[in-house]
Specification:
Methylamine Dehydrogenase, Chain H; Copper Amine Oxidase, Chain A, domain 1
């Protein structure tokens, strides 16, 4: 179950591409047909058309349950499927919420009774059945299997909270293991129940498995773990803190063994029984052993047989909050898009490429069986190992590396005390000591647990790569297709002359662009940046960029001091820091430059505001996400010049709140609202243009907006190939036109 909570987002990205992406994102998932991308596909299941809805769960059939507000204040449970919104009624009171459903159209939730008490309910075939409580006045059903067995947590007569199992009209107390709290979170069709409990000393929170009348403590990697799902094979998934870091780790319990699958890099864990939103992290497993892990508003990952893929939902995040809820047996992610400025919609998302891409070093994948050597790169440059090589330790499935060569590439100094067999690594204010054979390292005087001890191989000291890289504030990514580990870290030694040149390029761009004319800045910006701005101006009919965009960029960089440099192949990022005690924030400005045939060019700006003034705050490699520093020149927007067939452009007149999808010659549609769009070039001869108009909920029969398709000839003159201006608009929602350039 996941409920939306207030977000504390301290990052703002002011990049020109948003001007186009925000608009194009809005419609991308309003299509009733499949939209296909390079690595994934998204199927739109329909719009949930009730206002003030809260989504709690979505199942593998794409059904959605939750609550909505009616009559001003009354909270009512609903079931939504394929565009049909169904109110589930009440147990006599004015409050109901639906929390979960199975694949048999049975829904469970909580409702107030006529006596104003909270009872669990089971809804099926249009009837709501009272399931009661364990004697108290508080209850939360959390899951129902396909046999109609329900689990959850309920207050008891003794004012404790215990996990329960309800079946055939009877609610059974599953008890505790000495503590005063247990909560069941999932049940499979075999009747195996999982959840979490408080230990007897009330100091720790552990996952549990209940079967055949007995509860078993599944333990933890630290002091806090939760079980969240179980499949029919008895594979259990959940999450846990660890003793080695302050991140949540996704866990698989199988055959009595606890496996650490994934580290949620953007998370912050809590120890013991400290209160956490246990639905802020959502972990599901399908019958094929594929694991979906989702941390609210931060990251979504899939795990399968040791391979890990971080899911990028792309530009939709500009317009939607993406909430995955389940993963079906085909590997499809079922979830809900909650529009920031649009409706709420259900979706199924699926990979279309083989499941091989990983975004972190494997943890439980036995790739040590391969004879291929591992390659290690630091900031795009391959590390040469003259004798001992990096390898996968088969007992722990961790990557170990000869430490000296990588540490020195990361700007650290390495020492060795042969008498004590202790290796020392120091970088600025970070001091690490590791003794051969010890299961822990000492970082700035504090013991940190290791997955595998440091060892000596071929006369070299080898240590766990992920540990040493992350302690040195680096970012580690695993590329299984070429057996390469890529490490990104702040550069400690750099060419000051080059950095001065880059800053000069940025200043020249700013100065020449004050007029808003991109042509005057063309010599200082990348082809990608120029194409984005040029296309935007052509599509909107504007001649200059908005003045506030430039003024905002100037304001952000004024008074900032350089605090870091990142380098990755033909890409360099320079970070500036601007503290403001008066505004209680630290502002980091990230400028990206790319090297093209004609030299270095400005390409991108990221501005990140961190509130809660802390002068020692840092910007590290872990803050670099997506394509901020991906080591290649980005060409996601076509250049204006040097094309054999002229580019075509679509101009769409304003029309209420409808969105428009346009496809030329049955190619992938271009989506947008209100403004013009750049298209692929028209071919010679006839071209078929399909236009689909998507109305909002309030305009179910929209007329076509004014449409114009045109291209620019060699002299940059506008040549119109189709226009419906002056033509009577029809009420149809789609039309096909034949145009000849």
């Amino acid at each position: 179950m996941i409920s939306k909570k207030n977000k504390n987002v301290n990052t703002s990205i002011r990049l020109l591409t948003k001007l186009m992406l925000i608009f194009t994102a809005i419609i991308l998932f309003q299509l009733a047909a499949m939209s296909v991308y390079a690595e994934s596909e998204m199927k739109y299941l329909g719009t949930i058309d009730k206002d003030k809805t809260t989504i709690y769960s979505a199942n593998s059939k794409g059904q959605v349950v939750g609550s909505y507000i009616t009559n001003g204040t009354e909270v009512r449970a609903f079931l939504w499927e394929k565009g049909v919104f169904k109110d589930l009624g009440t147990l006599g009171g004015t409050y109901t919420k639906a929390y979960a459903m199975n694949d048999k159209d049975q829904v469970v939730g909580v409702s107030k009774t006529k006596e104003n008490k909270y009872h669990a309910f089971l809804w099926e075939n249009g009837v709501m059945k009272d399931m009661g409580t364990l004697g108290g006045n508080d209850v939360e059903p959390t899951a129902i299997n396909n046999k109609g067995q329900v689990v959850g947590v309920s207050e008891t007569k003794e004012n404790e909270y215990h996990a329960f199992l309800w079946e055939k009209g009877v609610m059974k107390d599953l008890g505790t293991l000495g503590g005063n709290y247990t909560k069941a979170t999932a049940i499979n069709d075999k009747g195996q129940v999982i959840g979490y409990l408080f230990t007897k000393d009330a100091k720790e929170r552990h996952a549990f498995l209940w079967e055949n009348g007995a509860m078993k403590d599944l333990g933890t990697l630290g002091s806090c773990s939760l079980g969240t799902d179980i499949n029919e094979k008895g594979q259990i998934v959940g999450f846990s803190d660890t003793k080695k870091d302050n991140k949540w780790h996704i866990i698989l319990w199988e055959d009595g063994v606890t496996k650490d699958l994934i580290t949620l890099e953007n998370s912050t864990s809590h120890s013991g029984i400290n209160y956490i939103y246990d639905d802020n992290i959502y972990v599901r497993i399908n019958e094929n052993g594929m694991v979906l892990a989702y941390e609210s508003w931060r990251e979504t990952v899939l795990w399968k047989e040791g391979a890990v893929k971080k899911i990028d939902f792309g530009v939709i995040t500009s317009a939607f909050d993406v909430n995955p809820y389940d993963v079906n047996d085909d590997g499809g992610i079922i979830g809900v898009l909650e529009g920031k400025n649009a409706s709420t919609s259900a979706f199924i998302w699926k990979d279309t490429k083989p499941f091989t891409v990983q975004t972190m070093i494997p943890t439980n994948q036995d790739i040590g069986k391969t004879e291929r050597e591992l390659t290690v790169k630091v900031n795009g440059s391959e590390v040469v190992f003259p004798d001992a090589k990096p390898y996968i330790d088969k007992s722990s499935n961790r990557t170990l590396i000869p430490i000296r060569f990588v540490s020195e590439k990361l700007g650290a100094q390495v020492t060795w005390d042969g008498s004590l067999k202790v290796i020392g690594i120091k970088k600025e204010d970070i001091d690490i000591k590791m003794k051969i054979g010890d299961s822990f390292a000492v970082v700035n005087g504090e013991e940190i647990q290791l997955d595998v001890p440091a060892v000596i191989t071929s006369g070299r000291t080898s240590v766990p790569l992920r540990f040493i890289s992350e302690v040195l504030e680096a970012k580690v990514e695993w590329e299984p297709e070429n057996m390469t580990v890529s490490i990104l870290a702040m550069v400690t030694k750099f060419d000051e002359k080059l950095l001065t040149e880059l800053k000069s390029i940025y200043n020249s761009y700013m100065e020449s662009y004050k007029t808003g004319d991109i042509e005057s800045a063309k010599g200082y910006v990348s082809e990608r940046y120029y194409a984005i701005v040029k296309n935007y101006l052509l599509a909107t009919g504007e001649t200059k960029m908005p003045e506030n965009q430039l003024l905002s960029d100037i304001k952000d960089i004024e008074g900032a001091i350089r605090c870091g440099v990142f380098e990755n192949g033909p890409t360099i990022g320079i970070v500036y820091k601007k503290p403001s005690k008066a505004e209680d924030k630290i502002t980091f400005v990230f400028l990206r430059f790319v090297k093209e045939d004609s030299g270095w060019k400005y390409d991108y700006t990221l501005v990140e505001d961190r509130y809660g003034y802390n002068e020692t705050d840092k910007f590290t490699a872990k803050d670099i996400t997506g394509d901020m520093l991906d080591g290649k020149v980005i060409t996601d927007v076509p250049a204006i010049n040097n094309v054999e067939i002229p580019k075509s452009y679509l101009s769409i007149g304003f029309h209420n709140s409808c969105f428009v999808s346009v496809s030329i010659n049955n190619e992938e549609p271009v989506i947008g609202a209100y403004l013009g769009l750049i298209m692929d070039g028209l071919k010679k001869g006839e071209n078929t243009v399909d236009i689909l108009i998507i109305p909002d909920d309030k305009d179910n029969n929209p007329s076509l907006p004014e449409i114009e398709i045109y291209y620019l000839d060699e002299s940059n003159a506008k040549k119109v190939v189709y226009s419906n201006k002056g033509v009577e608009k029809t009420g149809n929602t789609s039309q096909t036109f034949i145009v000849k350039p």
